[in-house]
Amino acid sequence: MTTDVKQAMAYPKLSHVHLKVNDIKSVKPFYEELFGMTVSDDLGTFVFLTNETTHHTLALQQTPTQFSSASQKLYHIAFEVNSEEELYGFARRLRSSNIQFSAVDHGISWAIYFNDPEGTGLELFLDRRGSPNGVPHWSGESHKLIIPD
């Protein structure tokens, strides 16, 4: 697709992520506490959470069938922060909650990868493309990111 066509088109924005979960009672507080999300609707087997002005950015659905993370067919959900301080603060929250994570420098972004209680992959990232040491395009290489204590 040419740049002219892309500029002329209106693209939809990401609205929400819908996860089928085995234990909604353990997954719901994870997103509430770690991401500061609030419940906009709780129907028992469906919970809708938000941290924005939209009704929900995350829908959780309790399922009668047990799913493993592989069968859910979701690689990760990405959340963006606006500063190094936010990224480091979030890493401290993960550490204090004994949640294992890996920190990666992709050049275009700094990312922290971890899982929710059911193994769903999560990414918290800081866009570095406009930063002094950031790069405009990913080279395909990534390096370990050192997160200060």
Structure write-up:
With 149 residues, the protein is an alpha+beta fold. Helices cover 23% and strands 30% of the residues. It has two domains: 13-64, 2,3-Dihydroxybiphenyl 1,2-Dioxygenase, domain 1 (Roll), CATH 3.10.180; 75-149, Roll (2,3-Dihydroxybiphenyl 1,2-Dioxygenase, domain 1), CATH 3.10.180. The strands form two sheets. A five-stranded mixed β-sheet has the order 5-8-7-6-9. Strand 3 (46-50) and strand 4 form a beta hairpin.
**What do we call the CATH topology of the largest domain?**
2,3-Dihydroxybiphenyl 1,2-Dioxygenase, domain 1
- Sheet with the most strands: spatial strand order: 5-8-7-6-9
Major β-sheet annotation: 5 strands, mixed
> What is the first-to-last residue Cα distance?
45 Å
Q: Could you tell me the number of beta strands?
A: 9
User: Helix tally?
Assistant: 4
What's the layout of helices and strands?
Elements: H1 3-8, E1 17-21, H2 24-35, E2 38-42, E3 46-50, E4 58-62, H3 69-72, E5 77-81, H4 84-96, E6 102-105, E7 109-115, E8 121-127, E9 143-144
Parallel strand pairs: 1-4, 5-8
Antiparallel strand pairs: 2-3, 3-4, 6-7, 6-9, 7-8
